[in-house]
Write a structure and sequence with these properties.
- By secondary structure, the chain is an alpha+beta fold.
- The chain is built from 9 helices and 10 strands.
- A 6-stranded antiparallel sheet has the order 2-1-3-4-7-8. Strands 5-6 form a two-stranded antiparallel ribbon. The protein has a two-stranded antiparallel sheet with strand order 9-10.
- The radius of gyration is 71 Å and the shape is rod-shaped.
C-alpha cells in the first residue's frame, strides 16, 4: 500500500482543510512525523484509519474528533488517496456532526444532526469513477483489497504512541506481554500450540519412519548376506548365476551405483543400498531361474533314465523269476526221475516179492508133500511091496533137487 495524499477538515486540531502530500515523503522511503504535543501527529494517523475503516484507534469515537475550533456547521471529513495492489482509490468519510437547522427546532438549539457518510472512487483510465456511497459496502470492498480488518490494521500498522513508548522502556521479560497486547497475538497461541503439537507428531512419525527404515535396512542386509554371501557387495564377488541365453550357467558380477567402491554396505546411503541390493536380488533371481530351468531339464532326463531303469528292473525281476522257476522245474524233474526209478524198482520188488511168496508157498507145499510122502514111504516100508517104489521116488526127488 502506498499513500499519495491525505486531506483533513474540521478534524481534530485541524479547523480548516489541511492537505498532506505523501508523494515526496514516499520517495524518501522513511520519514518522521514530528511536532509538539497537540500538533496533530496522532490525528493524521487517526485520519488515515478513519478513512479506510470508519473507526479510529483507542477508545475515542470518530464524532469526538470533530474540531471544536471550526465554524459551526462545517462538516468534519477525511479524504485519503492511496494505491494498493496496482489499483488507485480515493475514499472520503465524515462522521455524524451537527449543523444549523434551516428552521427553528423544538429543542431551541437550532442545530440538527447529519448522518455519517462515505464515498469510494477508483481511478480508471485516468478518471475518477464512483464505486460506492454505502459505508458498509465500502468497508467490505476495502477489507478485501487491504486483506486487513480495522483491528488488525490498528495493531500491526498503527502502534498507539503511549503503549509503544512503554514497549521501548520495557524489560525483555515484559516485552512479550506488551507485544501480545499491541498486536493481539493471543489468537496465534492456538496456532502455535497446534504447530507445536503437529511438530511433535511429525517428529514422532519421522522417528518411527527412521526406525522402520533402519529395520528394513538391517533386514535387507541380512537377506542379502544370507542369500548371496557376506561379500556379495565386493567388486570382485561373483553374483548369482545368470543365463547367457545358451544355458551355460556363467556368473555375472553384482553391479550398482557404487559398484566400483570398496566400502562396506553399512556405509552406503539408503538409495545406494536399495539400488545395489535390488540389482543383486534381480541377478540372483535370474540365476535361480536359469538354475531351475537347468534342473528341470536334468530332472526330465533323470526321470526318463529312471523309467528306463524301472523297465529294466522289471525285466530283470521277470528273468530272475523265470530262472527260479526253471531251477525249481529242474529240481522237480530230478525228483520225478528218481521217483520214476524208485517206482520201477518198486514194481520189480513187488514181482520178486510175489515170486518169493510163491516160492515159499511152493516150498511149503513141497515140505508138506515130503512129509506126506515120508509118511506114505514109512507106510510103504512097512509094506514090503512098496519098498522098491519108495526107492525110485527118492531117486526122483534127488534128481529134482
Amino acid at each position: 500500500m502506498r499513500i499519495h495524499g491525505l486531506q483533513l477538515q474540521a478534524f481534530g486540531p485541524f479547523a480548516e482543510r489541511e492537505e498532506v502530500d505523501f508523494t515526496v515523503l514516499n520517495d524518501a522511503g522513511l520519514f518522521l512525523l514530528d511536532g509538539p504535543t497537540g500538533a496533530g501527529k496522532s490525528t493524521v494517523l487517526a485520519g488515515i484509519c478513519f478513512a479506510l475503516y470508519g473507526s479510529v484507534p483507542g477508545d475515542r469515537t470518530p464524532e469526538s474528533l470533530a474540531s471544536t475550533q471550526a465554524p459551526i456547521g462545517t462538516r468534519p471529513e477525511v479524504l485519503l488517496d492511496f494505491t494498493v495492489g496496482g489499483r488507485r482509490f480515493e475514499v472520503q468519510r465524515w462522521p455524524r456532526y451537527r449543523r444549523p437547522a434551516r428552521r427553528k427546532l423544538k429543542d431551541g438549539t437550532g442545530l440538527t444532526e447529519e448522518k455519517a457518510g462515505a464515498v469510494l472512487r477508483e481511478q480508471r483510465e485516468g478518471e475518477w469513477r464512483e464505486v460506492s456511497v454505502r459505508a458498509d459496502e465500502i468497508g467490505q470492498l476495502l477489507g478485501q483489497v487491504l486483506h486487513l480488518d480495522a483491528d488488525q490494521f490498528m495493531r500491526v500498522v498503527l502502534l498507539p504512541q503511549g503503549e509503544f513508548a512503554t514497549f521501548l522502556r520495557a524489560k525483555s521479560a515484559d516485552k512479550e506481554t506488551l507485544l501480545r497486547k499491541l498486536f493481539g497475538t493471543g489468537r496465534f497461541d492456538g496456532v502455535e500450540d497446534f504447530l507445536a503439537r503437529r511438530h511433535r507428531h511429525l517428529e514422532a512419525a519421522v522417528s518411527r519412519d527412521r526406525d522402520q527404515v533402519a529395520t528394513a535396512r538391517a533386514d535387507l542386509l541380512s537377506c542379502l548376506e544370507d542369500g548371496l554371501g557376506d561379500d556379495w557387495w565386493a567388486p570382485g564377488h561373483d553374483g548369482a548365476e545368470c543365463d547367457d541365453g545358451e544355458g551355460s550357467g556363467r556368473t555375472a558380477p553384482v553391479t550398482g551405483p557404487d559398484a566400483g567402491g570398496a566400502c562396506p554396505p553399512q556405509d552406503w546411503t539408503d538409495g545406494d543400498l536399495g539400488a545395489r541390493g535390488t540389482t543383486a536380488i534381480d541377478e540372483a533371481v535370474a540365476g535361480s531361474r536359469a538354475a531351475r530351468l537347468r534342473a528341470a531339464t536334468a530332472l526330465a532326463a533323470a526321470q526318463e533314465h529312471l523309467e528306463t531303469l524301472t523297465r529294466r528292473q522289471q525285466d530283470l525281476r521277470q528273468a530272475r523269476a523265470w530262472r527260479e522257476r526253471s531251477e525249481r522245474h529242474g529240481e522237480l524233474a530230478g525228483r520225478i526221475a528218481e521217483d520214476r526209478v524208485a517206482l520201477e524198482r518198486h514194481g520189480v520188488a513187488v514181482a520178486v516179492d510175489r515170486r518169493a511168496r510163491e516160492a515159499e508157498a511152493a516150498e511149503d507145499a513141497h515140505r508138506s508133500a515130503v512129509v506126506t510122502m515120508e509118511g506114505v514111504q514109512a507106510t510103504a516100508l512097512e509094506d514090503g511091496h512098496c519098498c522098491a517104489w519108495a526107492a525110485e521116488v527118492e531117486d526122483c526127488t534127488v534128481d529134482a533137487r
